[in-house]
Amino acid sequence: MIGHRGYARVLRELNALQNRLYDCTKFDKLIRYRSANLLFLVLPNELFRDSEIPVGWGALVESDDALTLMRKPIWQETVVENQVRLLQRIAMAGTRAFNRQLEITFADNPASQWRSPN
After folding, report:
1. Residue 115 φ then ψ, to 5°
2. Which of 6, 20, 22, 63 is positioned for an S-S bond with 45, CB 3.0–4.6 A?
3. What is the domain extent for residue 91?
4. Domains contained in the chain, number
5. Helical ranges in the chain per DSSP H
6. Domain co-membership, 65 together with 107
7. Distance CA 53, CA 17 (A)
8. 103 and 57 within one domain
9. What is the largest CA-CA distance in the chain?
10. CA separation for the pair 54, 70 (Å, rounded)
11. Spatial separation of the C-alpha atoms in residues 37 and 30, rounded to whole Å
12. Pairwise CA distance, residues 50 & 43, whole Å
């Protein structure tokens, strides 16, 4: 049985882990969605902090115009459908950004009348 101090320590550690999880929500979702086998963060040397890299992710750090593997990622099993869904979402986001940049709206597109409301 855990004493009062041990219980308090466990609660503090649990709280720290929950805060880390919620702060890394987007990273956690990418792992949960099983969209890629390997996940990496690519960042400049001055921003790299090993303790801030989400669990399961790899880290590639840029220094002197080269990337160095600072942490190996954990292999994630995935299926092709999840990978295709991720690529479709990336393509849709890019298309939306491009359309905004060019000020293109659905009203400008004759095919938009055939677009499903869902």
Report:
1. -70, 135
2. 63
3. 79-118
4. 2
5. 4-23, 25-33, 80-101
6. no
7. 13
8. no
9. 71
10. 13
11. 10
12. 11
Contact partners, residue 87, CB within 8 Å, separation at least 6: none
For residues 39 and 31, give the distance between their C-alpha atoms in angstroms, rounded to a whole number.
8
CA distance 40 to 74: 10
Low-confidence winner among 18-22, 53-57, 76-80, 93-97 (lowest mean pLDDT): 18-22
Pairing of strands 66-71, 58-63: antiparallel
Report residue 4's pLDDT band, with 50, 70 and 90 as the boundaries.
low
- The residue to which tokens 């949960």 are assigned: 32
Note the pTM of the prediction, 2 decimals. 0.55
pLDDT of 67-86, one tens digit each?
999 999 999 888 888 888 88
35 and 85 assigned to the same domain: no
Contact indicator for 76, 34 with CB cutoff of 8 Å: yes
